[in-house]
Write a structure and sequence with these properties.
Layout (H helix, E strand, L loop, with lengths): L11 E5 L15 E5 L17 H16 L15 H11 L31 E4 L5 E4 L9 E5 L2 E3 L2 E3 L8 E10 L4 E11 L5 E2 L3 E3 L10 E7 L2 E2 L6 E8 L15 E5 L2 E5 L8 E11 L5 E11 L1
Parallel strand pairs: 1-2, 4-9
Antiparallel strand pairs: 3-5, 5-6, 7-8, 8-9, 10-13, 11-12, 12-16, 14-17, 15-16, 17-18
Length: about 300
Protein backbone atom coordinates (compact mmCIF):
# COMPACT_ATOMS: atom_id res chain seq x y z
CA UNK A 1 0.00 0.00 0.00
CA UNK A 2 1.21 3.51 -0.81
CA UNK A 3 1.94 5.28 2.48
CA UNK A 4 1.23 8.71 1.00
CA UNK A 5 -2.07 8.31 -0.85
CA UNK A 6 -3.19 4.91 0.46
CA UNK A 7 -3.52 3.33 -2.99
CA UNK A 8 -2.43 -0.22 -3.66
CA UNK A 9 -2.45 -2.95 -6.22
CA UNK A 10 -5.83 -3.29 -7.86
CA UNK A 11 -7.13 0.01 -6.48
CA UNK A 12 -8.71 2.82 -8.49
CA UNK A 13 -7.72 6.30 -7.35
CA UNK A 14 -10.14 9.21 -7.97
CA UNK A 15 -8.44 12.56 -8.59
CA UNK A 16 -9.41 15.96 -9.93
CA UNK A 17 -7.67 18.92 -11.44
CA UNK A 18 -4.18 19.22 -12.82
CA UNK A 19 -2.73 16.49 -10.54
CA UNK A 20 -5.13 13.81 -11.65
CA UNK A 21 -2.69 11.95 -13.92
CA UNK A 22 0.35 11.83 -11.73
CA UNK A 23 1.49 11.67 -8.11
CA UNK A 24 4.32 13.60 -6.63
CA UNK A 25 5.64 10.48 -4.93
CA UNK A 26 6.99 7.07 -5.95
CA UNK A 27 5.64 3.59 -5.31
CA UNK A 28 5.70 0.22 -6.97
CA UNK A 29 2.00 -0.71 -6.82
CA UNK A 30 0.34 -0.79 -10.27
CA UNK A 31 -3.03 0.95 -10.21
CA UNK A 32 -5.28 3.21 -12.25
CA UNK A 33 -5.94 6.90 -11.72
CA UNK A 34 -9.26 8.31 -12.94
CA UNK A 35 -9.49 12.03 -13.77
CA UNK A 36 -12.63 13.90 -12.77
CA UNK A 37 -13.21 16.93 -15.00
CA UNK A 38 -14.65 19.85 -13.08
CA UNK A 39 -14.14 23.51 -12.62
CA UNK A 40 -12.63 24.78 -9.35
CA UNK A 41 -16.11 25.78 -8.12
CA UNK A 42 -17.97 22.61 -9.05
CA UNK A 43 -18.98 19.81 -6.65
CA UNK A 44 -19.82 16.37 -7.94
CA UNK A 45 -21.69 13.66 -6.02
CA UNK A 46 -20.48 10.09 -6.55
CA UNK A 47 -22.95 7.21 -6.12
CA UNK A 48 -21.25 4.11 -4.62
CA UNK A 49 -22.74 0.64 -5.03
CA UNK A 50 -21.57 -0.39 -1.55
CA UNK A 51 -19.84 1.06 1.47
CA UNK A 52 -16.15 1.69 0.91
CA UNK A 53 -15.26 -0.26 4.07
CA UNK A 54 -17.62 -3.19 3.49
CA UNK A 55 -14.81 -5.73 3.17
CA UNK A 56 -13.09 -4.26 6.20
CA UNK A 57 -16.31 -4.62 8.24
CA UNK A 58 -16.66 -8.26 7.17
CA UNK A 59 -13.12 -9.05 8.29
CA UNK A 60 -13.65 -7.21 11.59
CA UNK A 61 -16.84 -9.18 12.29
CA UNK A 62 -14.99 -12.43 11.64
CA UNK A 63 -12.18 -11.44 14.01
CA UNK A 64 -14.67 -10.44 16.75
CA UNK A 65 -16.40 -13.81 16.48
CA UNK A 66 -13.10 -15.66 16.67
CA UNK A 67 -12.10 -13.73 19.80
CA UNK A 68 -15.45 -14.17 21.56
CA UNK A 69 -15.42 -17.92 20.92
CA UNK A 70 -12.13 -18.14 22.80
CA UNK A 71 -13.08 -15.74 25.62
CA UNK A 72 -10.48 -13.22 24.48
CA UNK A 73 -10.71 -9.45 24.78
CA UNK A 74 -8.97 -7.31 22.14
CA UNK A 75 -8.28 -3.57 22.19
CA UNK A 76 -7.23 -1.85 18.95
CA UNK A 77 -4.65 0.90 19.32
CA UNK A 78 -4.31 3.15 16.23
CA UNK A 79 -2.07 6.16 15.88
CA UNK A 80 0.72 7.55 13.77
CA UNK A 81 4.21 5.98 13.93
CA UNK A 82 6.24 7.03 16.95
CA UNK A 83 3.25 8.39 18.90
CA UNK A 84 3.67 6.02 21.87
CA UNK A 85 1.59 2.90 21.22
CA UNK A 86 4.36 0.61 22.49
CA UNK A 87 4.77 2.69 25.65
CA UNK A 88 1.02 2.37 26.28
CA UNK A 89 1.23 -1.40 25.79
CA UNK A 90 4.12 -1.70 28.25
CA UNK A 91 2.37 0.38 30.90
CA UNK A 92 -0.86 -1.59 30.43
CA UNK A 93 0.93 -4.93 30.80
CA UNK A 94 2.66 -3.78 33.97
CA UNK A 95 -0.65 -2.69 35.48
CA UNK A 96 -2.51 -5.80 34.34
CA UNK A 97 -3.87 -7.84 37.24
CA UNK A 98 -5.98 -10.98 37.45
CA UNK A 99 -5.92 -14.43 35.95
CA UNK A 100 -5.70 -13.29 32.31
CA UNK A 101 -2.39 -12.88 30.48
CA UNK A 102 -1.84 -9.89 28.18
CA UNK A 103 -0.33 -10.22 24.71
CA UNK A 104 0.34 -7.81 21.84
CA UNK A 105 -0.15 -8.29 18.09
CA UNK A 106 1.40 -5.65 15.80
CA UNK A 107 0.04 -4.76 12.36
CA UNK A 108 1.41 -1.79 10.37
CA UNK A 109 1.19 -0.05 7.04
CA UNK A 110 4.10 -0.65 4.69
CA UNK A 111 6.33 2.04 6.10
CA UNK A 112 9.77 2.44 7.62
CA UNK A 113 8.71 5.35 9.83
CA UNK A 114 8.13 3.27 12.99
CA UNK A 115 9.70 4.27 16.25
CA UNK A 116 12.16 1.91 17.90
CA UNK A 117 10.35 -0.96 19.67
CA UNK A 118 11.29 -2.10 23.18
CA UNK A 119 10.51 -5.77 23.81
CA UNK A 120 9.67 -7.00 27.30
CA UNK A 121 8.82 -10.32 28.98
CA UNK A 122 6.23 -10.84 31.71
CA UNK A 123 7.18 -12.87 34.79
CA UNK A 124 5.74 -16.34 35.24
CA UNK A 125 2.75 -17.02 37.48
CA UNK A 126 3.57 -17.23 41.21
CA UNK A 127 4.29 -20.65 42.70
CA UNK A 128 2.93 -21.28 46.23
CA UNK A 129 4.34 -23.99 48.50
CA UNK A 130 2.41 -24.92 51.65
CA UNK A 131 4.31 -25.42 54.88
CA UNK A 132 3.08 -28.55 56.61
CA UNK A 133 0.44 -31.01 55.53
CA UNK A 134 -2.80 -30.61 53.63
CA UNK A 135 -5.23 -31.78 54.79
CA UNK A 136 -4.04 -30.99 58.30
CA UNK A 137 -5.51 -32.66 61.41
CA UNK A 138 -5.87 -30.52 64.55
CA UNK A 139 -7.10 -31.68 67.95
CA UNK A 140 -10.22 -29.85 69.02
CA UNK A 141 -10.24 -27.56 72.07
CA UNK A 142 -6.49 -26.94 71.80
CA UNK A 143 -4.70 -24.18 69.90
CA UNK A 144 -4.00 -23.84 66.18
CA UNK A 145 -1.15 -22.03 64.50
CA UNK A 146 -1.25 -21.76 60.73
CA UNK A 147 2.01 -23.23 59.35
CA UNK A 148 1.71 -20.77 56.46
CA UNK A 149 3.11 -20.89 52.94
CA UNK A 150 5.84 -19.40 50.76
CA UNK A 151 5.60 -18.03 47.22
CA UNK A 152 7.92 -16.98 44.41
CA UNK A 153 8.07 -16.34 40.70
CA UNK A 154 11.07 -16.25 38.37
CA UNK A 155 12.05 -12.86 39.76
CA UNK A 156 12.21 -13.90 43.42
CA UNK A 157 10.14 -14.32 46.62
CA UNK A 158 6.61 -12.93 46.88
CA UNK A 159 4.38 -12.15 49.90
CA UNK A 160 1.53 -14.54 50.68
CA UNK A 161 -1.87 -13.51 51.98
CA UNK A 162 -4.22 -15.96 53.70
CA UNK A 163 -7.98 -15.86 54.07
CA UNK A 164 -10.23 -18.07 56.15
CA UNK A 165 -10.16 -19.08 59.81
CA UNK A 166 -10.13 -22.18 62.01
CA UNK A 167 -12.28 -22.51 65.15
CA UNK A 168 -10.72 -25.22 67.31
CA UNK A 169 -13.74 -25.14 69.64
CA UNK A 170 -16.07 -26.35 66.87
CA UNK A 171 -15.02 -29.67 65.33
CA UNK A 172 -15.36 -29.74 61.55
CA UNK A 173 -13.54 -28.98 58.31
CA UNK A 174 -12.14 -25.52 57.57
CA UNK A 175 -10.50 -24.16 54.40
CA UNK A 176 -7.62 -21.70 54.35
CA UNK A 177 -6.84 -19.97 51.05
CA UNK A 178 -3.34 -18.70 50.29
CA UNK A 179 -2.82 -16.12 47.51
CA UNK A 180 0.21 -14.55 45.90
CA UNK A 181 0.41 -12.03 43.03
CA UNK A 182 3.23 -10.44 41.08
CA UNK A 183 1.05 -7.76 39.49
CA UNK A 184 0.54 -9.80 36.31
CA UNK A 185 -0.90 -13.08 37.57
CA UNK A 186 -2.37 -14.38 40.83
CA UNK A 187 -2.06 -17.92 42.19
CA UNK A 188 -4.23 -19.42 44.94
CA UNK A 189 -3.77 -22.65 46.90
CA UNK A 190 -6.07 -24.06 49.59
CA UNK A 191 -5.47 -26.13 52.71
CA UNK A 192 -8.18 -28.14 54.48
CA UNK A 193 -7.92 -28.26 58.27
CA UNK A 194 -9.76 -31.09 60.03
CA UNK A 195 -10.62 -30.09 63.60
CA UNK A 196 -11.49 -33.30 65.41
CA UNK A 197 -12.09 -34.36 69.00
CA UNK A 198 -10.28 -37.64 69.70
CA UNK A 199 -9.70 -37.34 73.47
CA UNK A 200 -12.13 -39.12 75.81
CA UNK A 201 -13.38 -37.58 79.05
CA UNK A 202 -11.11 -37.99 82.05
CA UNK A 203 -12.51 -39.81 85.12
CA UNK A 204 -10.92 -39.39 88.52
CA UNK A 205 -10.42 -42.27 90.96
CA UNK A 206 -13.71 -44.05 91.65
CA UNK A 207 -14.75 -44.45 95.30
CA UNK A 208 -17.72 -46.71 96.15
CA UNK A 209 -19.44 -46.29 99.49
CA UNK A 210 -20.36 -48.49 101.17
CA UNK A 211 -18.18 -51.12 99.56
CA UNK A 212 -19.55 -53.97 101.71
CA UNK A 213 -23.20 -54.88 102.36
CA UNK A 214 -24.07 -56.71 105.60
CA UNK A 215 -25.99 -58.36 106.99
CA UNK A 216 -27.42 -60.12 103.89
CA UNK A 217 -31.01 -59.23 104.86
CA UNK A 218 -32.37 -59.01 101.27
CA UNK A 219 -32.99 -55.27 101.57
CA UNK A 220 -32.00 -52.58 98.99
CA UNK A 221 -29.14 -50.40 100.25
CA UNK A 222 -28.19 -46.96 98.88
CA UNK A 223 -24.69 -47.06 97.36
CA UNK A 224 -22.89 -43.97 96.06
CA UNK A 225 -20.25 -43.78 93.32
CA UNK A 226 -17.94 -40.86 94.08
CA UNK A 227 -15.91 -39.55 91.12
CA UNK A 228 -15.35 -36.49 88.95
CA UNK A 229 -15.33 -36.37 85.15
CA UNK A 230 -14.01 -33.66 82.85
CA UNK A 231 -13.81 -33.13 79.10
CA UNK A 232 -12.38 -30.28 77.05
CA UNK A 233 -15.63 -29.98 75.12
CA UNK A 234 -17.66 -29.52 78.29
CA UNK A 235 -20.28 -31.87 76.88
CA UNK A 236 -19.35 -35.11 78.61
CA UNK A 237 -22.08 -37.14 80.28
CA UNK A 238 -21.70 -40.11 82.61
CA UNK A 239 -23.78 -43.13 83.55
CA UNK A 240 -23.37 -46.08 85.91
CA UNK A 241 -24.25 -49.70 85.26
CA UNK A 242 -24.33 -52.74 87.56
CA UNK A 243 -23.45 -56.38 87.03
CA UNK A 244 -23.12 -59.31 89.44
CA UNK A 245 -21.32 -62.63 89.64
CA UNK A 246 -24.62 -64.20 90.77
CA UNK A 247 -27.97 -64.28 89.02
CA UNK A 248 -30.52 -61.74 90.18
CA UNK A 249 -32.90 -64.49 91.27
CA UNK A 250 -30.63 -67.46 91.77
CA UNK A 251 -30.95 -70.53 93.98
CA UNK A 252 -30.78 -69.88 97.70
CA UNK A 253 -30.75 -66.06 97.57
CA UNK A 254 -34.18 -65.23 98.91
CA UNK A 255 -36.21 -65.34 95.67
CA UNK A 256 -36.11 -61.59 94.83
CA UNK A 257 -36.18 -60.70 91.13
CA UNK A 258 -34.64 -57.20 91.10
CA UNK A 259 -31.37 -56.87 92.94
CA UNK A 260 -30.34 -53.32 91.86
CA UNK A 261 -31.87 -49.99 90.87
CA UNK A 262 -30.04 -47.23 88.94
CA UNK A 263 -30.96 -43.86 90.45
CA UNK A 264 -28.49 -41.64 88.54
CA UNK A 265 -24.84 -41.55 87.44
CA UNK A 266 -23.64 -41.38 91.06
CA UNK A 267 -26.30 -43.31 92.94
CA UNK A 268 -27.58 -46.92 92.85
CA UNK A 269 -29.43 -49.25 95.19
CA UNK A 270 -28.06 -52.78 95.70
CA UNK A 271 -29.77 -55.68 97.43
CA UNK A 272 -27.93 -57.04 100.42
CA UNK A 273 -28.27 -60.70 99.55
CA UNK A 274 -26.18 -63.56 98.23
CA UNK A 275 -26.59 -67.21 97.39
CA UNK A 276 -26.43 -69.51 100.35
CA UNK A 277 -24.56 -71.97 98.16
CA UNK A 278 -21.76 -69.61 97.11
CA UNK A 279 -18.68 -67.95 98.55
CA UNK A 280 -20.10 -64.41 98.52
CA UNK A 281 -21.56 -61.99 96.04
CA UNK A 282 -19.68 -59.34 94.08
CA UNK A 283 -21.47 -56.37 92.51
CA UNK A 284 -19.46 -54.52 89.84
CA UNK A 285 -20.30 -50.86 89.25
CA UNK A 286 -19.06 -49.45 85.92
CA UNK A 287 -18.98 -45.69 85.38
CA UNK A 288 -18.88 -44.72 81.69
CA UNK A 289 -18.43 -41.14 80.44
CA UNK A 290 -18.84 -40.04 76.82
CA UNK A 291 -18.47 -36.73 74.98
CA UNK A 292 -20.30 -35.36 71.93
CA UNK A 293 -17.75 -36.95 69.58
CA UNK A 294 -18.54 -40.41 71.05
CA UNK A 295 -15.18 -40.67 72.79
CA UNK A 296 -15.68 -42.77 75.91
CA UNK A 297 -13.84 -43.80 79.07
CA UNK A 298 -14.81 -45.91 82.08
CA UNK A 299 -13.86 -46.96 85.60
CA UNK A 300 -15.01 -49.89 87.74
CA UNK A 301 -15.60 -50.41 91.44
CA UNK A 302 -16.86 -53.40 93.53
CA UNK A 303 -19.33 -53.93 96.33
CA UNK A 304 -19.13 -57.18 98.30
CA UNK A 305 -21.85 -59.16 100.02
CA UNK A 306 -19.64 -61.56 102.04
CA UNK A 307 -20.69 -65.08 103.04
Amino acid sequence: MCVTCGCGEGDTRLSAGADADTHRHHHDQPHEHVRLERTPHETEMLQLGQRVLTRNDELAEHVRGWLEARDLTAVNLMSSPGSGKTAVLEATARAFKGGRKPAALAGDLATDHDAAIAYFALPSSPVITLNGESPLAVEAFTTFTDPGATAHDDEGPLPVTVSGSVDVNSPGDYTLTYSATNGYATTTVTRVVHVQDTIAPAISELLITPSTLRPPNHKLVDVHALYEASDASGTGSCAVSVSSNEAQNGSGDGNTAQDWVIVDGHHVQLRAERSGNGTGRIYTLTVTCQDAAANGSSREGRVLVPR
